[in-house]
Amino acid sequence: MAELTTIARPYAQAVFGLARDTKRFTEWSDMLAFIASVYSDPQVQQALANPKLTKDDVERLLVGVCGERLDPAARNLLILLVRNDRLTVLPYIVERYEQMREEQENTLEASVESAFPLNDEQLKILMQRLEQRTNHKVKANVRIAPELIGGVKVQIGDEVWDASVRGQIDGMAGALIS
Predict the structure, then answer these.
(1) What is the CATH architecture of 106-177?
(2) Average pLDDT rounded to a whole number, residues 51-66
(3) Does the domain spanning 2-103 belong to CATH 1.10.520.20?
(4) Which one, 18, 101, 156, 172, has least CB within 10 Å?
(5) Whole-prediction pTM value?
């Protein structure tokens, strides 16, 4: 894995530099995710497993499937990856690019579990509080977790803030036992 990450790094850095220079971070995120999803598609993988395919065949296949969803620079990246036998590092390129983008945008990713669906206003207030607490923009991945009974549980990196009823019950149970 470390080797694939090392191989992916210069590609991700090049894409990031281009995205930064053109101020097109979101578009590049979308194009990279699309290329990676096309490559990982089971039907595409089955087609690529054909030992009779040449690099030109693979290039035509992938560029054809991706079509107009890629701009010329993204198409060139795909062709470069095919020609250099680097398609397997696509997920690592996407991962590293997104890490660099988050660092550039001063953004943290938060995993939010809520006992009940949060409406837009509740989510907005929660995000504001998290941004104040962390001094970063926060991007939330929200999941409904009825086992929390009530409240929310937030994880950013290795920090966890548990404001759930389940967390309070577990805390009281621990206090009673000790």
Answers:
(1) 3-Layer(aba) Sandwich (3.40)
(2) 94
(3) yes
(4) 172
(5) 0.65
